[in-house]
Write a structure and sequence with these properties.
4 helices; 6-stranded antiparallel beta barrel; 4-stranded antiparallel β-sheet; single chain; 394 residues
Length: 394
């Protein structure tokens, strides 16, 4: 064999020997026990909680409409403004309404003058009305004359025609008195009608200032300055954000666990690090046949208006149900392709076992199926473990 060929053969022989030695070293290292943290699955008392998703909504929401016709003269508040109950929102031009109120006041003053009432004073009784007082006096005089005529006629001292004249005078006076009373009643009714018309005109004048019905925020403005609005025309939408209402549906199997007054915690994407407290205030009496769930309403305090209506929320409701459950550290779970496994330690080796998980309990998790209490498992750093690996407990 020539020199170059021999050199090549020698090179490959040395390389093969080196590779064989490396594989041996790796095999030896593969069989070396790996130090792991081992813990026994524990049984703990678990207070059950119900996790659902819901939506935050305004406790009250109303579209405010104009009650009188008028032109918008001023926008006192606009989109996003916080308003107090009774605060002015929009002012309409009051000029025409003021003229109407003044006209009604003048008509009322005229009616009171005809009745004989003083300005601003109480209405006198019917028998104190001037026309009634006058006819009452005339009726009394006619009555006295009639009585005298009857007395004289009974003694044949007065002719029959004079007696009939006295009777006629009395009847006329009585009719005049009755007419005066009727007129006084009519005047009094007119005064009441004019008073009602004046109060209505004054109310319409006040309604030219459109006010907030409750504490809240302006969610939408629907008119512009200078726009003429008719009665019942929407002008603004107001929402109440304190507290907020939370609506959600709870699966029917949790019905025995849910009742009004239960505390709940709420999380929203806008504030991922913050937890908001609330409570259940209403529970629907029936189950939705399509979703097989029942509706609940919660109340979430929102004093600073941080939470917005329409926000998606994750809700956790605390219950009184306490159960014994097998729990392990969350770090003991290896998740692969939609399945969860733990590694059971036995005779210095690990064996993967598929488990079904329940509720998350802080840094621990419930195992509802696949693991018994007291079983030794690897409690951390399980991502690189595989069946059959040798381990030693740290």
């Amino acid at each position: 064999m020539k020199g170059p060929a021999l050199a090549v053969l020698l090179f490959f022989s040395l390389g093969a020997a080196s590779c064989s030695r490396d594989r041996g070293i790796q095999a030896a290292e593969g069989q070396k026990a790996r130090g792991v943290k081992v813990e026994a699955a524990q049984v703990r008392d678990v207070r059950r909680q119900v996790d659902v998703v819901g939506t935050l909504a305004a406790r009250e929401e109303v579209v405010i409409s104009a009650e009188v016709a008028g032109r918008v003269s001023r926008l006192v508040h606009d989109l996003g403004d916080r308003v107090a109950a009774g605060a002015p929102l929009i002012e309409l031009d009051p000029e025409k309404l003021q003229y109407r109120a003044d006209g009604q006041r003048a008509s009322l003053d005229q009616a009171r003058a005809r009745y004989g009432a003083s300005d601003g004073g109480d209405l006198p009784p019917l028998d104190k009305v001037p026309a009634v007082v006058s006819t009452t006096a005339q009726l009394a005089d006619a009555q006295q004359q009639l009585d005298r005529a009857k007395n004289l006629s009974s003694r044949n001292l007065l002719s029959r025609s004079d007696l009939e004249t006295a009777q006629t005078r009395f009847d006329t006076a009585k009719a005049a008195h009755d007419q005066a009373l009727a007129s006084a009643r009519q005047l009094r009714a007119d005064i009441e009608a004019q008073s009602s018309s004046l109060r209505l005109a004054q109310r319409e004048l006040r309604d030219a200032v459109i006010r907030a019905p409750f504490d809240g925020y302006v969610a939408e403005r629907l008119v512009s300055p200078g726009q003429f609005v008719q009665p019942q025309a929407p002008v603004m939408r107001i929402v109440r954000l304190q507290p907020l209402k939370l609506t959600a549906e709870v699966p029917e199997k949790f019905a025995p666990w849910i009742e009004t007054g239960r505390e709940m915690t709420v999380k929203v994407d806008a504030f991922p690090q913050q937890v908001f407290a609330g409570k259940v205030v209403r529970i629907a009496p029936g189950v939705n046949l399509k979703s097989r769930a029942f509706a609940i309403e919660g109340e979430v305090p929102n004093p600073d208006g941080k939470l917005k209506p329409g926000t998606f929320a994750r809700v956790q409701i605390t219950t009184d149900r306490v159960e014994r459950a097998v729990t392990i550290p969350v770090s003991a779970i290896q998740s692969r392709y939609g399945t969860n496994r733990v590694f059971v330690v036995k005779d210095g080796q690990v064996t993967g076992r598929e488990v079904v998980l329940g509720d998350r309990l802080g840094d621990r998790v419930e195992v509802s199926q696949g693991l018994e209490a007291g079983t030794s498992i690897v409690a951390a750093d399980v991502e690189q473990l595989a069946d059959g690996m040798k381990v030693t407990a740290k």
